[in-house]
Amino acid sequence: MVKGANVGLSALSENVGAVVVGLGWSSATGEGDADVSVLLLDADGKVSSDADFCFYNNPVAGDGSVHLLGKTPTADGSEDRISFDLDAVPPEVDKVVVAASRYGGAHFGELDDLRLTLADSTGDALARFAVHDVEEVSALIFGELYRRAGEWKFRAVGQGYASGLAGLATDYGVDIDDDAETADAETAGAETAGAETAVAQAAMAEAADGLAASARTAGAERAGTERTGTGQVGAAPEGPGPDVEVPGGTSTAPSARVPAQSRDGHAVDRAATGPEPAKPGTAAAPADGPKSARRPRTAKKKVTLPRTAKKSLADNDTWRTARLFPGSALKSDRERETRATSVVLSVMAQVPEFGRRLTAAFGAPAGRMETFTEVTLPHGESPRRPDGVIRVERAGKLWTALVETKTNGNALKPDQVQAYMDIAARRGYEAVITLSNDVALEGSPLVDVRIDRRRKHKVALWHLSWAEVVHQAQMLIRHEGVGDAAHAWLLQELLHYLQHENSGCHGFQNMGAAWVPVRRGIDEETLCQGDARALEVIENWERLVRQVCLRLGGELGQKVLPVQRVRRGADPGARRTELADHLCEQGRLNAEIRIEGTPGVLGITADLRTGKLRTSIEVPAEGAGYPLARAKRLVRRLSDAPADLHIETLVDGRGTGPRGTLERLRPEPADILPKDGAQITGFRLSLFKGMGAGRGSAETGFIRSVDDAVDRFHAQVVAHVDAPVV
After folding, report:
1. Which residues face 482 on adjacent strands?
2. In Å, how far from its chain's centre is CA 208?
3. Cβ pair 305, 488 in contact under 8 A
4. pLDDT digits (tens, 9 = 90+) for 405-428
5. Reduced to 3 states, what is the DSSP secondary structure of residue 705?
6. What's the whole-model pTM score?
7. Tens digit of pLDDT for each residue in 305-321?
8. Are 443 and 471 in contact (CB under 8 A)?
9. What three-state secondary structure class fits 178?
10. Which residues lie across from 601 on neighbouring strands?
11. Tens-digit pLDDT profile for residues 511-529
């Protein structure tokens, strides 16, 4: 599509009751990023309620009809995906705007291949819009979905805002709070003032959970930036007919603040008419005086589980806590598959946030979910029994997916999956979902199935890894929160079961049959380029790196994604073939992962010749001052890092300079400085450890050694690099 063009979705596909929009970009360094936001507008082109602004701190909006799915790795880097259940969008919503913003002074002109893709509920691509000439803008409207004559249409917009999120938000009736820190302080005083008894104060304290406290602290730290006016750049040209609409000016209605913290430091408030009544037990503001702003928040309070466990009442350590889903009695693969399927599907049905997170990317609507096991379906002379069925009802319509589960590293069987695809097509079901320890790669399907193009009804085939299920559970109960304490407890029990040694749901755990021959061939220098075994190792290495990102992201509550420095539009298969040739020639596996909030990219290198794992990060030379002062600041930041940490100086124009271990540099930081006075651009920090020999995840296995190396490096080095210097 070109800028300003529009198209009716029903003309593109029959499966547009739910669609997925992807926003993507790439950069030469692999470090460019932006935050996605969605605004639900009424007929006047304004947001009208607290549920109408969807962004990274409020990923679900419009009664669950809009869901931010987060980033997904692609061949060109990563892509932010948003699920839209168009049948469930509230009737008062006339238009849905899809935008993104950058922060910290960055702008979209620094990114390449800006694009929007639109896919239907089966995953088939419907439209693609490439955005050009964005220049110095820090917020960008990619496109919009809007109603016209009873159907949904899509318009390619490509409108930029030089004033960033503030300018974009103001155009749609969203106000900007300039001083969130003051608002927090005033709100804290209002919430505690007027409490008549200690019982009331205790009840209020109990209601506030750790997530709210963290949000209050983060809001205070990021507040105080100056308000920015609007500034539109590159507005979409007017087209024929009434379909072309350009967002209007600012709201003039009296506003009561319902703010949401933006990543660039502003507290974004949604305008709402009329004053809000004072809460019982709080001091009301004078009618003729200035109204104090409420503490920034975007949604109802969520429940998360505390990180520190309560003191046990057990007599000794041999007593085991009673579990809802026990795993100790599992013995056979069939028992593991049956138990795991039933446990996951039941929790999906009982915890709406969890079920929605796992199915939104598959085109499922936001509705009432029921899950089933032990289902028998006719298929020729021998009925089939899929491991599970998921059904979601919305407005009288059913969305149905068959589930095929494998545990303990067992591979999916193509004939089973093919049979379920045929059954789903005949019965009008929407999807088949496979769930196993394996991790799917772009352009490399786990199971090749035959699609009968003569059938009018299309069935989508999707895959979930057990590592993804664990990741989503961790994100909810540790970081984002769920609706009530019972749901949090259910997720905790699920997580304990999936991580039990007998569950068989431990994610990718085997580098494959080619691992040992490839290592032997590299050691003996007999491995030749073009060897199919090297390609298998590269694919499994990519699976392992993606699983490391899922695990680390779930533990930290941050976006962790693999970085792929490839040419735009490169074929994933060709890229892996090239990496396999490099493995044969150099004997090394390389990967990079980006952790949100860290100053650089974490590199992982597995040298199969030496049997060493290297984890590293490059950090810029911080602050002003003399080179010796910079070196001393770095050493102080790394006061708790391991003594064997290697530090290399990065010198402008010639790569690396002096190097040494932290143990040697602590008494003499000047040893890391170039003797010729060359300009220092940064430092490379590295840790080395032995690499496991086995292909699995046992104590001496390669997968375990990679996990341990990344965990150690992040905890002992990366976490301290950005810490304030004492």
Report:
1. 303
2. 26
3. yes
4. 999 889 999 999 999 999 999 899
5. helix
6. 0.72
7. 776 667 778 888 888 88
8. no
9. coil
10. 594
11. 999 999 999 999 999 999 8
